[in-house]
Design brief:
69% of the residues lie in helices and 0% in strands. The chain is an all-alpha fold and 205 residues long.
């Protein structure tokens, strides 16, 4: 699908709830501080789009799980990531429905409860994102085995530049050692003078 498989699609959709639901919280706080209805309206619509984006991220993630080869360690982290993703989606789905029904009727006390729940939801969202990051950066989930093996092979051979570019530190050190002179006399030594061990036959011209 447009060059995307389920894991890649899930990675692309993950940004939607993270960005939009955090933005919802920021506009809610700004509306509380300034009492401006325009800011509250923006937070309402970012919440709606963020909740939809969260649903898309969860659905694509459930599909991606079936298409990723993984072992027991990855499966354990994946299950935790999925659990927090569903909790996050549940919190923001409730908030979205609540605000659709009550947005124009809320008083300050009710809005405070909504704000606290939004803050809690964003906190759970970051926990969800943390587990998703562990899947990629600690377990290389969704990276095909042949690609991972090739990368490991290249790393084992070290990093090299070609075409006159910078050499690796080991190569540079070897090159400098090969170009260094074999022997250097200390400063002040008269030219062309040296001594031989006792018993060495004299030079013959």
């Amino acid at each position: 699908m447009l060059g995307y498989d389920w894991p890649r699609l899930h990675a692309a959709l993950n940004d939607l709830p993270t960005a939009l639901l955090l933005t919802t919280l920021l506009f809610d706080l700004a509306a509380l501080a300034t009492k401006r209805e325009g800011l509250r309206l923006v937070s309402f619509w970012t919440l709606m789009v963020g909740a939809i984006g969260g649903a898309a991220a969860v659905i694509s993630g459930l599909q991606a799980e079936e298409h990723i080869a993984h072992g027991e360690a990855v499966h354990e982290v994946m299950e935790t990531h999925e659990k927090f993703a569903l909790i996050t989606l549940g919190v923001f789905a409730v908030l979205a429905l609540w605000r659709i029904v009550r947005e124009r009727k809320m008083r300050s006390g009710e809005r405070s409860i909504v704000l606290v729940l939004t803050l809690i939801g964003v906190g759970i969202l970051f926990v969800t994102a943390n587990y998703g990051g562990r899947l990629v950066f600690e377990h290389a989930a969704a990276i095909p085995t042949p690609v991972l093996q090739e990368e490991l092979h290249e790393r084992s051979e070290g990093h090299h530049h070609h075409g006159g570019q910078e050499e690796s530190p080991a190569t540079s050190a070897d090159s400098a050692e090969s170009q260094a002179p074999d022997h250097m006399d200390p400063p002040g030594t008269p030219p062309h003078t040296h001594s031989h061990p006792p018993g060495t036959p004299p030079h013959q011209d």
